[in-house]
Fold these 3 entries.
Entry 1:
Amino acid sequence: MRYMLVRTIVRISRIAALCGFFESALAHHPVQAKFDDSRQLELEGQITAIDWSSPHAHIYINVPQDGGTPVNWAIELADPTELEWSGWQPDTLAPGATIRVSGYEARNGSHQIWAEKVLGPDNTEMFMVPDDLIQQKLANRPSGPTPRWPDGQPRLGPAPGQTGYWTAPGKNSLVEDGVNVAFDKHGMLENINDSSKVAPFQDWAHDLYALRQLNDGKDDPLFLYCIPPGGPRQFQVPYGVQFVEERNRDRIFVLMSGGNGNWRLVYTDGREDVTQVSGNDDNPLFYGRSSALWEGDSLVVNTTGFNEGFWFSNGGLPHTRLLELTEKFTRTDLNTLRYEVTVNDPGAYTRPWTSSWDLQWMPGEELPESYCQDNRQ
């Protein structure tokens, strides 16, 4: 059976005027940066190979053509971690099986499709991931008080002999506390008319933010070049963060599952961070330079020295080299970490502002492996 274009969805154009009114945007699909959800395909073919690697698994199928050589298509699925959590394995289907797929074709015209639905040989839906997957995994956690060191200081990581990490951020993008706007899980606004409410932008910063939103994140440096998720974005990554506390050296390593397994160093005795040989006053860093002190049960971290080569939040809020972050970490109980960040960037915003959310403790597991994929065309 030859592949066919099932339908072309005619959608209202979303045009950004850098100064002026923005059309209401339809809800963003998480894969819109690479795939065009206005062009839906249905394919049927025989599996030739399965690539079960991060950040997205792929199934390759030969799609017959009338009177010609079959065309090999790459069917892109979710991350293998999510697929395995949902009960799927790389050997769920074997090469030679015939499947039917419906989804969105690649924007660059290559033979790739994002799978919205996969039907196996017996017409059973396969390789789908439930929207509430993380919440399902967190549902039966034991509760308890904040774990503490012998001197009473809260632990940001696991207790001795245990494992775990922080995940499921309560916000998917930076937005000033008290502002009620809707985002998808990638920090894309449900309604572009809400863009000016998100933060106290300077005009240029708002225009750039709105343009990035309307472009569906296609110019996100993390998506394009695997640039690290510096700033608050490290606490928005899908598979979480882990704190490794070296109290004998007065420092904490913040390990990230997203990106490429990046990590950040925070000193906890107030000293200035001058040990990073990859950056100096003339060569700012993706994670900046952090100095921290404990204030009661909260770790307060001040960070400066950022470069401008990354997005410091999902959704593309701009920043400049003047960015200064004050982060506050408070473990309120066994399963909850309160994260509060004050953004002070006189180059992009009209005043300092604060955003906060909770992260949830995933007990008994190490950080999942999830790696970035360079998507330059």
Note: The chain is about 10% helix and 35% strand.
Entry 2:
Amino acid sequence: MIARPVPACRKAPHRPRVGCPPGARPGPQDGVRGHLGYTRVVPAERIAENLAFINWTVLTGLAIGSFVAVVLARMRTDATRGFLAFTAACAVVLGILAVLSDQALPVASSGSPIRIDPAFDQPRRVALAAFTALAAVYVVALARRHRAPWIAAAGLFAAAATLVFGALAWAGGTVFAVPLLLQLVILAIATGGVFAAMILGHWYLVTPKLPEAPLILISRGLLAVVALQVVLFAVWVSTGTGPGVGAGPFSVLVGPWALFVWLRLIVGLIFPLVVSWAALQTARSRSMESATGLLYINVGTIAAGTILAAGLYFGAGLLV
């Protein structure tokens, strides 16, 4: 004897619900999902749910990266006091915003495979506040024409501690702490470095007789950092690095997050690499207006790449 399937109970349009036989289950037209289905969270929604962490990554990266650029320019070039003090002051403002954003970080990443360790939250906040305070002291030292190498070194140490504690808190374990730390450091140097380079480009527009050495140095460093990001992208994608990668090497290129991964590669890495090379060549030829325009473009593309990288990590556990 063949068992007949249990009929579905449907509601006819513009009429009350038709009587259903015993054991009937709700049909799809009832709008009831029951326990057999659920609404799948799409990647864009997952990224939006982790905007607090993305905001922290961008603000902290801008503050730390621009401070690193100032210290490098102060120690290695004859950059003007005005540029150094102004960019360092920007790092202080961005650091304050990063401290405020850190206070608003949730204790758990919504819908993300990342396991957060709250034990490192307070050390990270203390280190970030110390970095901001030391950067403010360095601004005063620069305004008074002091080199202040010990203050600069202390600020760099506090910046490194901030990123270390961040990696330990968000790596989901010690296995991914080192790759995540490397990602945070590279993102900070790239994001803040291009911001400092763009500011320096404006100084040449106001004072055209400035030597080109500072802009060439920062542009060369920016090109090297972006090139390193491309190499790390290839390594991490080919090895399936990240707490959210479960399907093996290169799976992120075709999975549900593939659109954002390709945007990270093309918009956030390949295009900035080409523009960084062009900015370096124009700076060497003293075409400072062209170099500044290219750096303006790079600010947007590198910032977009940082947002994508942070969103992919905190939303899906992907290192790219």
Note: The CA atoms of residues 54 and 307 lie 6 Å apart.
Entry 3:
Amino acid sequence: MFCASYDFIMKPVAMFRRNIRRLMVLAVAGLGLLCAVRAFLPRTSAAAPVASADGANPPVIRFVKNPEMAPPLPGLDLLGQPINKDNWAGKVVLVNFWATWCPPCREEIPELLKLKKEYKDQLEIVGISEDDDPPESVLKFAQQQRMTYPIVMATPELIDSYGGVPALPTSFLIDTQGRVVQKHSGLYPIEAYDLEIRALLGLPTSARVETFIDTGQVFLRNAANATELPGVSFKGLTAEQKKRALRRLNSESCTCGCNLTLSQCRVNDSGCPVSGKLAAQVVKEVASGTKPAQMPPPKGTSTITH
């Protein structure tokens, strides 16, 4: 996730942010347990395709228009078995980032196993464990849960190659040509996965397929292609001013500790107050023609001084 030359600085930051994320996941899970009614309601997702009650409007699924090839994975899983991407040809693949301590991740495991059982050799699932525990503990948990798909341990480099994983579980959907066509963060309905998998395999489906340009929804680095950003208003800027503002947002770093550009942070976490304030300041300075009072440190560098 971070450059090796800055590991001695950034590793404590990465651990702090991981612990915060863990606490947030557990807190959300605790609130969910307090709401007993949840057990009796179908799970929904804002990104999930929804059909009308009368069936007049078919559900819509969305895939990246010009998908990128999936990043490489470690060569061996926790059992020492090889993970060969050459064997993925003609299959749909789900790369699932998860952790044993994450309640939503544990809830999702039986559903992933159900998908694997249904599609057999047409579907490959690879679990990427973000646990701090040793691989032996993760393997023991996986065996207890009867997880039949391969599992590898996450590394900062692997997480970074997938554009960062701010929430667990997060799954990347890979088509039969090895290209990443969609990303889903959080619990995602198994029925929606089923529609997407069927469409990618060329099987009959009731869903309508639409495509979109990836402007950071899948790979954060593609936020540089965005012309609009969550929570950022370019109202009142000329076309040239908007270009200048976007250039700055794509080159200046957020100071919240995410190690991302302002654009990437807005896409990754639209609720971040730090990037929101900094982005608004950039737009204001571009609109008034004033120079920035202080440039944020370049991405990947430290503000620590000696």
Note: Strands lie at 60-64, 68-69, 92-98, 123-129, 151-153, 170-174, 179-185, 208-212.
